[in-house]
Amino acid sequence: MDCIFCKIANGEIPSNKVYEDDQVCAFYDLEPQAPVHVLIIPKKHIASVMELEEENAAVVSHVFLVAKRLAKELNLANGFRIVSNCGEDGGQSVHHLHFHLLGGRSMKWPPG
Ligand code: 5GP
Ligand code: ZN
Fold this sequence. Notes:
The protein is built from three helices and five strands; from the N terminus they run αβββαβαβ. By secondary structure, the chain is an alpha+beta fold. Residues 3, 5-6, 45, 96 line the site of zinc ion. Guanosine-5'-monophosphate is lined by residues 4, 15, 27-31, 39, 85, 91-94.
């Protein structure tokens, strides 16, 4: 499958990885929107939140635990934001489920 994040997960495309285990990997976003902008993805291809099912959803709680760990390691004690854009209206541009971990500045709400 021609999926850029599958290729990053299996090392075919280089990335600046900050964390990896058997289920997920995390790497710095190519176009950072905050001083810290990391993407956390399941290694297994899931297109978006809309493709989550009981059988494949456990990885999402693992992603959040990894986010917590990275937030500590990357000095985001003052707070951070986790975002998963879904579909056209959500602004999703890469169709492999991913969670943006953003921090290092004060976030605005609503995001627009
Ligand atoms: P989305 O818009 O789907 O929520 O987020 C996709 C994100 O992936 C964007 O923030 C974009 O900058 C990032 N991105 C796209 N291609 C690459 C890539 O090849 N490497 C890295 N590290 N990030 C990428
Ligand atoms: Zn993929």
